[in-house]
Amino acid sequence: MTQDPAKNPYTANAADGGSGFAAGGTTTINGFATTGMIISLGLVGGVVAVSAVMTFLMLSDPPEDQPVFRFAGESTIFVIVGYAVFIGGAAAAVVLRRVMKQQAVAEFKSSNAELPQPLQPHSPLPGSAVKLLGAAQVYTIVGGALLEGPAVLNAILMFIDHNFAHAIPVFLAVIGILIQVPTAGRYQQLLEDARLARRL
Fold first, then answer.
1. pLDDT confidence of 200, banded at 50, 70, 90?
2. Domain locations along the chain
């Protein structure tokens, strides 16, 4: 059973009777981009906060007989687990984003609604465009969450194992989330590309 992105509680909007939370109470590109940015930066903030606490606790009781940055020895299993979870999460984020985007664009292409001309970030959007941006917001949140989890796990493992090697996947996860942060320009380009694809 598939769930209509526009009916998702995170993406419901004023146009379909929802609360408009994820769309900022609007049906514009700016509304979706603003809320998506807040959610994405919230994920980054959570990772940074947990990592900072774990780092502080780790440095409060540093190991005396081993370096704080290592890949071998007793730390091997922790490093393998941490890095494997990160790689799996990153791969899942890439695949799911691509699949969900293709499905959303395909649904938009099957509609007959026309986008405003010229398309502006503050232009009210038709229902099909709202659904497309709603889906984009969902796969952005999913992609960020799939990186946030491994990052938090590695931050915890960093504290448990007293090993800064886990800071690498944490850093990469933060970069990965930031790369996905939605902007009005990205959403506008998504709509323009979907409109062009429908004409092909």
1. low
2. 21-199
